């Protein structure tokens, strides 16, 4: 029996899919190369913006054909869209046999049995169940042998007015320190060098269990064999001095942080309920620079939030100029059902969003060109993650930039020093030192 999983959305979703793969393999399934040869297809969905929603339905239309060749084949939908739409999804797409929410992935084995017996297997929960931690007991199928995602918390306690995540993933639940450390130790014994701690708001880890995120960083760093630590996503409000200090003190923590600012205007930040001003965000950036020498930044921005004026938007551009992010992920505001921003007055016309977006991209392109140039001639530490065409090594710097260089398979999984020969916005050609 073979499975095929199509994953949309964030790294958390990709890690969930790695866990689902682990469960399926425990049940005796193997991964199919493409969906045509699968006995079960799962779509792990995202609903953060309207676009990923639409993609799910177009994929379902395609996957429907599987049942013509293989009438016993099962089609499942899980993740955030499943959670948000519930039964409405199966009504819209009767081809779906299995549906579960992000709260109860661990129930997949039972759901498959039900579906095989000919029932629609739907398990959408309103709240996370008490036994959701059972998920951690399953082995995980890793997509990358050297860098591993480790989910350390689920859900989010913030109330950003544009965001569906508190609805689809629930309130914050931190995973216990013991459970995380055990997973990291197991990963290291499997050859993993870099751990990437994941959470919707990872900097708030521990707040619900009387702990602080910096403790997690120190404890993970104590594990022999962990060479690098990264984490995503940080929230500026929870990023305090304790975290900045830990990042600076712990050599294993990479000098990079993804810290979404979303908007540069204080008025818009307030409407978004982000809990900080532009000035406060910039103070966090200065604090990080002070504690973590050479730190680089990436961010998320929303363009065209309700009532955003030209002046508000210029504050966003100003933020890009001031911080000079290495990477900016920018999104046109997409009204999500059941969020406060959905029904706010003053929705910005799509045409205006598109124009602002293209100005933002143009500015960031210039900044990235300059940032890239500043790397040329420098020495960087790189973890070699993969190889292409037998001799092109691919890796990442501590500051989260992709590099490539010549070399052989024996270099895979090694942390090496390289010299940057030529640097482009998204890649750097290097030489081993
Ligand atoms: N519209 C546009 N972008 C959004 N994001 C979250 N919700 C929305 C929305 N409704 C963006 C934010 C977040 C990233 C993952 O997606 O920038 O940080
Ligand atoms: Fe998409 Fe957010 Fe769900 Fe991740 S948590 S899959 S970004 S909706």
TrEMBL record:
<dbReference type="GO" id="GO:0005829">
    <property type="term" value="C:cytosol"/>
</dbReference>
<feature type="binding site">
    <location>
        <position position="156"/>
    </location>
    <ligand>
        <name>[4Fe-4S] cluster 2</name>
    </ligand>
</feature>
<dbReference type="InterPro" id="IPR023404">
    <property type="entry name" value="rSAM_horseshoe"/>
</dbReference>
<feature type="domain" description="TRAM">
    <location>
        <begin position="373"/>
        <end position="433"/>
    </location>
</feature>
<feature type="domain" description="MTTase N-terminal">
    <location>
        <begin position="1"/>
        <end position="117"/>
    </location>
</feature>
<feature type="binding site">
    <location>
        <position position="80"/>
    </location>
    <ligand>
        <name>[4Fe-4S] cluster 1</name>
    </ligand>
</feature>
<dbReference type="GO" id="GO:0035597">
    <property type="term" value="F:tRNA-2-methylthio-N(6)-dimethylallyladenosine(37) synthase activity"/>
</dbReference>
<comment type="subunit">
    <text>Monomer.</text>
</comment>
<dbReference type="InterPro" id="IPR013848">
    <property type="entry name" value="Methylthiotransferase_N"/>
</dbReference>
<feature type="binding site">
    <location>
        <position position="10"/>
    </location>
    <ligand>
        <name>[4Fe-4S] cluster 1</name>
    </ligand>
</feature>
<dbReference type="InterPro" id="IPR002792">
    <property type="entry name" value="TRAM_dom"/>
</dbReference>
<feature type="binding site">
    <location>
        <position position="160"/>
    </location>
    <ligand>
        <name>[4Fe-4S] cluster 2</name>
    </ligand>
</feature>
<keyword id="KW-0408">Iron</keyword>
<dbReference type="Pfam" id="PF04055">
    <property type="entry name" value="Radical_SAM"/>
</dbReference>
<keyword id="KW-0819">tRNA processing</keyword>
<keyword id="KW-0004">4Fe-4S</keyword>
<keyword id="KW-0963">Cytoplasm</keyword>
<dbReference type="InterPro" id="IPR020612">
    <property type="entry name" value="Methylthiotransferase_CS"/>
</dbReference>
<keyword id="KW-0411">Iron-sulfur</keyword>
<dbReference type="InterPro" id="IPR058240">
    <property type="entry name" value="rSAM_sf"/>
</dbReference>
<dbReference type="Pfam" id="PF01938">
    <property type="entry name" value="TRAM"/>
</dbReference>
<dbReference type="Pfam" id="PF00919">
    <property type="entry name" value="UPF0004"/>
</dbReference>
<dbReference type="GO" id="GO:0051539">
    <property type="term" value="F:4 iron, 4 sulfur cluster binding"/>
</dbReference>
<protein>
    <recommendedName>
        <fullName>tRNA-2-methylthio-N(6)-dimethylallyladenosine synthase</fullName>
        <ecNumber>2.8.4.3</ecNumber>
    </recommendedName>
</protein>
<comment type="function">
    <text>Catalyzes the methylthiolation of N6-(dimethylallyl)adenosine (i(6)A), leading to the formation of 2-methylthio-N6-(dimethylallyl)adenosine (ms(2)i(6)A) at position 37 in tRNAs that read codons beginning with uridine.</text>
</comment>
<dbReference type="GO" id="GO:0046872">
    <property type="term" value="F:metal ion binding"/>
</dbReference>
<keyword id="KW-0808">Transferase</keyword>
<dbReference type="InterPro" id="IPR005839">
    <property type="entry name" value="Methylthiotransferase"/>
</dbReference>
<dbReference type="InterPro" id="IPR006638">
    <property type="entry name" value="Elp3/MiaA/NifB-like_rSAM"/>
</dbReference>
<feature type="domain" description="Radical SAM core">
    <location>
        <begin position="142"/>
        <end position="370"/>
    </location>
</feature>
<dbReference type="InterPro" id="IPR007197">
    <property type="entry name" value="rSAM"/>
</dbReference>
<feature type="binding site">
    <location>
        <position position="163"/>
    </location>
    <ligand>
        <name>[4Fe-4S] cluster 2</name>
    </ligand>
</feature>
<comment type="similarity">
    <text>Belongs to the methylthiotransferase family. MiaB subfamily.</text>
</comment>
<dbReference type="InterPro" id="IPR006463">
    <property type="entry name" value="MiaB_methiolase"/>
</dbReference>
<dbReference type="InterPro" id="IPR038135">
    <property type="entry name" value="Methylthiotransferase_N_sf"/>
</dbReference>
<keyword id="KW-0479">Metal-binding</keyword>
<feature type="binding site">
    <location>
        <position position="46"/>
    </location>
    <ligand>
        <name>[4Fe-4S] cluster 1</name>
    </ligand>
</feature>
<keyword id="KW-0949">S-adenosyl-L-methionine</keyword>
């Amino acid at each position: 029996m073979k499975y095929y999983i199509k994953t949309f959305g964030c790294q958390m979703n990709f890690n969930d899919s790695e866990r689902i793969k682990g469960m399926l393999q425990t049940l005796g399934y193997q991964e199919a190369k493409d969906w045509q040869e699968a006995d079960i297809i799962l779509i792990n969905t995202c609903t953060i913006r309207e676009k990923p929603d639409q993609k799910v339905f177009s994929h379902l239309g395609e996957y429907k054909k599987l049942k013509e060749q293989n009438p016993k084949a099962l089609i499942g939908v899980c993740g955030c869209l499943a959670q948000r739409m519930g039964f409405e999804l199966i009504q819209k797409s009767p081809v779906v046999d299995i549906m579960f929410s992000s709260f109860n992935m661990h129930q997949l084995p039972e759901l498959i049995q039900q579906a095989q017996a000919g029932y629609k297997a739907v398990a959408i929960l309103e709240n996370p169940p008490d036994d959701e931690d059972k998920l951690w007991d399953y082995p995980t199928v890793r997509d990358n042998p050297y860098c591993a995602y480790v989910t350390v918390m689920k859900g989010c306690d913030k109330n950003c007015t544009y965001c569906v995540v508190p609805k689809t993933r629930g309130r914050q639940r931190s995973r216990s320190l013991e459970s995380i450390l055990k997973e990291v130790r197991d990963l290291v014994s499997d050859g993993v060098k870099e751990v990437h701690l994941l959470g919707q708001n990872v900097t708030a880890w521990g707040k619900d269990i009387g702990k602080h995120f910096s403790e997690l960083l120190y404890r993970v760093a104590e594990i022999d064999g962990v060479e690098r630590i990264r984490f995503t996503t940080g929230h500026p409000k929870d990023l305090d001095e304790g975290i900045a200090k830990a990042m600076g003190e712990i050599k294993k923590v990479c000098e990079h942080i993804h810290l979404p600012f979303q908007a540069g205007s204080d008025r818009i930040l307030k409407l978004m309920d982000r809990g900080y001003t532009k000035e406060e965000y910039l103070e966090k950036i200065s604090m990080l620079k002070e504690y973590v020498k050479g730190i680089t930044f990436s961010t998320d921005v929303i363009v065209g939030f309700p009532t955003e004026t030209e002046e508000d938007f210029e504050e966003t551009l100003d933020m890009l100029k001031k911080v000079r992010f290495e990477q900016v992920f920018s999104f046109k505001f997409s009204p999500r059902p059941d969020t406060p921003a959905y029904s706010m007055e003053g929705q910005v016309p799509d045409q205006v969003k598109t124009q602002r977006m293209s100005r933002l991209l143009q500015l960031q392109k210039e900044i990235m060109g300059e940032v890239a140039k500043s790397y040329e001639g420098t020495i960087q530490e790189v973890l070699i993650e993969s190889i292409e065409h037998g001799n092109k090594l691919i890796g990442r710097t501590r500051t989260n930039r992709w590099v490539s260089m010549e070399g052989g398979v024996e270099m895979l999984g090694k942390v090496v020093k390289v010299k940057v020969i030529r640097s482009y916005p998204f890649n750097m050609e290097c030489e081993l030192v």
